[in-house]
């Protein structure tokens, strides 16, 4: 059985859910219940045993707001993750990422993360423009964000990602660029820069549809493009649609998603995908109470866990492979594609690739050992959705 797996751990609790967020989480919580943590540790142990995990390839703790966990809970969770594998420990080079929100950062938590071998923090800044943050229901003020960043700078010596959103309602170009320059001043090795996406069913979508808020999609795209130039000028290389890093500082965990590698998701609402001759995806129940009850029971096992399971046919897997691979500026290897799908990549891309090539939106590079790597360039990546639709 395949033993190369990454682990995603989901903490579905927030102090307050932001209006633009469509990830599974619940608001109005200032703590993570011990009962949830106990269920989560149980699931991690069971799934690691079930899949025969020797050691985790990468670990990512996300949410929600994982930094709502207390220092003691963080230590307990990370100890359980370490002991869940056959190796029983973390490799010294393992990338372990922890998402944090500024208002929940404390020196004690940073000390625990460091001592428990967490190597990377991902902090949601989004903006320093308080009025725009307020308009999208984000409870964290710029003052709290600055305090958190200053604390991290004094108490954290490992890797750091900072998030920023382009196009928040009411945010001017000047305010956006000032926020970006301020983020750069903290010298993170990685920056995730997103264009504000209005997801159906979110409070933000309702406010925009009802006319309470104005949202200019074209302005958001324009700001993102300005931001990309600023990041490039400061040494951050775009390696994926929304991700930029210093040399060799890409997110290994996210690259595994985009390269269709195995990952196990644990926690209410978490998803996992295992690729083999018969590929399978499972999604845990969004009912937190049902999740906690099941995984805290004596006979909990992965095969009967509440949620859904689906087989991925080769057509679905192939399209997802293209969809995820072309998100990255590195693109897709023709030899790897042929190995996986027994087909010629150039033939599969057909007229769509020729059209993009004629418009100088893509490139081809010969690989060592044979084969060609097909990728969209920095101009072409802006038309990713159109490219995938036409495929």
Quick structural summary:
The chain has helices spanning 34-50, 71-83, 107-115, 130-135, 142-155, 173-185, 203-209, 217-233, 252-258, 288-295, 314-325, 334-341, 345-358, 384-390; strands at 4-11, 55-63, 95-100, 120-126, 159-166, 190-195, 237-240, 243-245, 263-266, 271-274, 279-284, 307-312, 332-333, 362-366, 372-376.
Question: Which key features would you list for this structure?
Answer:
21% strand, alpha/beta, 391 residues, globular, 9-stranded mixed sheet
What is this structure's SSE topology?
Elements (H helix, E strand, L loop, with lengths): L3 E8 L22 H17 L4 E9 L7 H13 L11 E6 L6 H9 L4 E7 L3 H6 L6 H14 L3 E8 L6 H13 L4 E6 L7 H7 L7 H17 L3 E4 L2 E3 L6 H7 L4 E4 L4 E4 L4 E6 L3 H8 L11 E6 L1 H12 L6 E2 H8 L3 H14 L3 E5 L5 E5 L7 H7 L1
Parallel strand pairs: 1-2, 1-9, 2-3, 3-4, 4-5, 5-6
Antiparallel strand pairs: 6-8, 7-8, 10-11, 11-12, 13-15, 14-15
Helix pairs in contact: 1-2, 1-10, 2-3, 6-8
Polypeptide structure, described:
It is built from 14 helices and 15 strands. It has helices at 34-50, 71-83, 107-115, 130-135, 142-155, 173-185, 203-209, 217-233, 252-258, 288-295, 314-325, 334-341, 345-358, 384-390; strands at 4-11, 55-63, 95-100, 120-126, 159-166, 190-195, 237-240, 243-245, 263-266, 271-274, 279-284, 307-312, 332-333, 362-366, 372-376. The strands form three sheets. The protein has a nine-stranded mixed β-sheet, sandwiched between helices. Strands 10-11-12 form a three-stranded antiparallel β-sheet. Strand 1 (4-11), helix 1 (34-50) and strand 2 form a beta-alpha-beta unit. Helix 1 packs parallel to helix 2 (71-83), helix 1 (34-50) crosses helix 10 and helix 2 runs parallel beside helix 3 (107-115). The longest helix has 17 residues, at 34-50. The mean pLDDT is 95.
């Amino acid at each position: 059985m395949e033993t190369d797996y990454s682990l995603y751990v989901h903490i579905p609790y927030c102090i307050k859910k932001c209006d633009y967020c469509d990830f599974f989480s619940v608001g109005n919580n200032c703590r993570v219940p011990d009962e949830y943590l106990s269920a989560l540790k149980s699931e991690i142990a069971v799934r690691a045993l079930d899949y025969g995990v020797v050691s985790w390839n990468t670990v990512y703790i996300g949410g929600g707001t994982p930094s709502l966990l207390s220092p003691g809970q963080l230590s307990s969770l990370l100890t359980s993750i370490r002991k869940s594998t056959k190796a029983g420990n973390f490799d010294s080079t393992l990338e372990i990422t922890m998402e944090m929100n500024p208002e929940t950062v404390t020196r004690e938590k940073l000390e625990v993360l460091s001592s428990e071998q967490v190597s990377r923090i991902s902090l949601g800044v989004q903006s320093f423009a308080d009025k725009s943050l307020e308009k999208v229901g984000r409870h964290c003020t710029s003052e709290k964000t600055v305090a958190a960043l200053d604390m991290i700078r004094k108490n954290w010596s490992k890797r750091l990602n900072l998030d920023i959103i382009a196009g928040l309602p009411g945010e001017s170009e000047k305010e956006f660029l000032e926020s970006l320059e301020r983020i750069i001043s903290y010298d993170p090795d990685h920056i995730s820069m997103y264009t504000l996406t209005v997801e159906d069913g979110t409070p933000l979508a309702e406010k925009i549809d009802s006319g309470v808020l104005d949202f200019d999609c074209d302005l958001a795209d324009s700001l993102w493009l300005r931001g990309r130039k600023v990041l490039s000028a400061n040494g951050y290389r775009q390696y994926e649609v929304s991700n930029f890093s210093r040399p060799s500082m890409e997110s290994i965990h996210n690259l595994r998603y985009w390269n269709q590698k195995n990952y196990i998701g644990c926690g209410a609402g978490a998803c996992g995908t295992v690729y083999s001759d018969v590929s399978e995806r499972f999604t845990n129940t969004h009912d937190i109470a049902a999740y906690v009850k099941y995984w805290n029971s004596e006979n909990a096992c992965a095969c009967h866990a509440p949620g859904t399971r689906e087989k991925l046919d080769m057509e679905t897997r192939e399209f997802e492979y293209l969809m995820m691979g072309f998100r990255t500026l590195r693109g897709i290897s023709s030899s790897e594609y042929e190995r996986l799908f027994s087909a010629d990549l150039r033939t599969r891309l057909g007229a769509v690739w020729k059209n993009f090539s004629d418009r100088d939106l893509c490139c081809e590079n010969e690989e060592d050992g044979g084969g060609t790597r097909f990728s969209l360039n920095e101009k072409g990546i802006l038309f990713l959705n159109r490219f995938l639709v036409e495929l």
